[in-house]
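From the pipeline queue, job 12 of 40. The input is one protein chain; the requested action is below.

Action: predict structure.
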Amino acid sequence: MIRRVNLTRRVQKQILKLPAHVQRKLLTWSRMVGKLGLEEVRKVPGWHDEPLVGPRRDSRSIRLSRAYRAMYRVVQDRGEEVVSVEEVNKHDY
């Protein structure tokens, strides 16, 4: 069961520029993954967890607000699978 979330340096910098409510949502999602595991959190409809297509087909996204998304991948870290949040950005409609 995957319960560890790593934020890349890029994301750590991006977080500082995000609205406070978006920061809280990302922190809440991260804590839920740590407590329940990624598989259970994916089942929560409010996160709109979905696979990406095209060049990012190995990644997934979650909805942090109507405008903001976080993109993540499951990667190996020292023999353990972890969630690596790769990018947080404003989604273009």
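Job complete. The domain at 5-90 is CATH 3.30.2310.20 (YaeB-like fold).
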